[in-house]
Design a protein that fits this description.
By secondary structure, the chain is α+β, with helices and mostly antiparallel strands. It has a single domain (3-85), classed as Ubiquitin-like (UB roll) (Roll), CATH 3.10.20.30. It contains two helices and seven strands. The chain has helices at 28-38, 42-46; strands spanning 3-6, 20-23, 47-48, 51-52, 56-60, 63-64, 80-85. The strands form two sheets. A five-stranded mixed beta sheet has the order 2-1-7-5-6, with helices on one face. It has a two-stranded antiparallel ribbon with strand order 3-4. The model has no long low-confidence stretch (mean pLDDT 92).
Length: 90
């Protein structure tokens, strides 16, 4: 099961500069665990206390995973996951 994960610039130091990486897993949580094996520290930047960090937005095929099931969101082969840091300003 191959899932493409788009990595924001701020996290590319963990992926050796790669804009996108591939992972596998039946849920978003499993995908993050799989990615953390090859890119140590990535999961910790995205997850805190078993939930997505507040300042991180994650999209599955352009749908916000917070409305799909969070870390338990089911994934399928060929899905695309996009990680975006939240932006705030005044």
């Amino acid at each position: 099961m191959a899932i493409e994960v788009r990595i924001p610039t701020i996290l590319r130091t963990l992926t050796d500069g790669s804009k996108a990486v591939e992972g596998k897993g039946g849920t978003l949580d499993e995908l993050f665990a799989d990615l953390d094996v090859r890119h140590p520290g990535l999961r910790a930047r995205l997850v805190d206390g078993g939930k997505l960090r507040k300042f991180v937005n994650v999209y599955l095929n352009d749908e916000d995973v917070r409305f799909l099931g969070g870390l338990e969101t089911a994934l399928s082969d060929g899905d695309s996951v996009t990680i975006l840091p939240a932006v705030a300003g005044g």
